[in-house]
Amino acid sequence: MWQAEHVRAALQQYYPACDVSILGMTTRGDQILDRSLSKVGGKGLFVKELEVAMAEGRADLAVHSLKDVPMELPEGFALAAVMEREDPRDALVSARFASLDEMPPGTVIGTSSLRREAALRSRYPHLVVQPLRGNLDTRLAKLDRGDYGAIILAAAGLKRLGLADRIRALLDPATSLPAAGQGALGIEIRSDRPELAAWLAPLNHVATALAVGAERAVSRRLGGSCQVPLAAHAHWDGSRLQLDAFVATPDGSRSVHAQRAAEVGSGADAQALGNAVADVLLAQGADALLAVALQNDGAAARPSGH
Questions:
Q1: What integer pLDDT is reported at residue 224 of this predicted model?
Q2: What share of the chain is helix, strand, coil (3-state, %, to 5)?
Q3: Least C-beta-crowded within 10 Å: which of 7, 41, 202, 212?
Q4: How far apart are the first and last CA of the chain?
């Protein structure tokens, strides 16, 4: 809802006479809280109901956290704008510990992300990683009542909701590489609405859109979803875009990493950079790691005895 309000305020700045109403909805991703996203369908759980509302004409646009948007949109839909990115980093939230390094063996850390789990298990094998679902208030409440010694959340969500004071430490991307699109908002519309795309054009932040485009290209090429520990993060160094990515097994025991930089001035350039990084990962055996992740996920989802 904060994101929708943010987009409404931005539109009203550009078009003071317009009337923008918000159609609040609850998605399957919001409703299923007793299982990890990788077990119940992944990223699409947060967007399907919104796409149905647009297809039926009940809504003109949908606002998403871009890291929750599938890499391939259904036919008939398009991303019309990517807004300027908030902090893309992961954040450590804890009342007891100021850093991951000071946590004693057996400390329980909560996260909803296989990507974060793999990074934690690789660098901090003495810590216990447990699943954490629910909205932000629910997750913080579980921490505050002592279910976890610390939790890892996206810094962007905490900052947007005025909860930056809960952040004990911002995790360096070298420790916890962000997910593709993390910290960015995407606006989705029906692809047969060119007039709406033009109306939304002022909200598109080109530098963010290109960076996110490169990140999503890596994930798209590798079939990225919530079922696999995959990270991709791009940042600008002048006119050059540096893209880092990794793929790991869920337990963090094996991983491959790639980094490339290039002059990027168009969406095609961003796509090419993402594909180049994906090619490096594949040459290092990323496909085998992805297969392990998907096999483990399928085994966990099968009924016992099979």
A1: 62
A2: 40, 20, 40
A3: 202
A4: 42
Exposed, middle or buried, 100 (CB in 10 Å: 0-12/13-18/19+)? Answer: buried
CB 129 within 8 A of CB 121: yes
Gyration radius of the chain's alpha carbons: 19
Helix (H) or strand (E) holding 108: strand 108-111
Tell me: pLDDT of 41 over 80.
Answer: no
Contact status, residue 225 vs residue 115, Cβ threshold 8 Å: no
| pLDDT tens profile 202-237 | 999 999 999 999 999 999 999 865 577 899 999 999
Which residues are known catalytic residues? 68
Domains annotated on the chain, with CATH: 1-85+184-204 (3.40.190.10), 90-170 (3.40.190.10), 206-306 (3.30.160.40)
The one-character DSSP state at 305 is T
114-130 burial string, b = 16+ CB within 10 Å, else e? bbbbbbbbbebeebbbe
Residue 119, phi then psi, degrees to nearest 5 = -65, -40
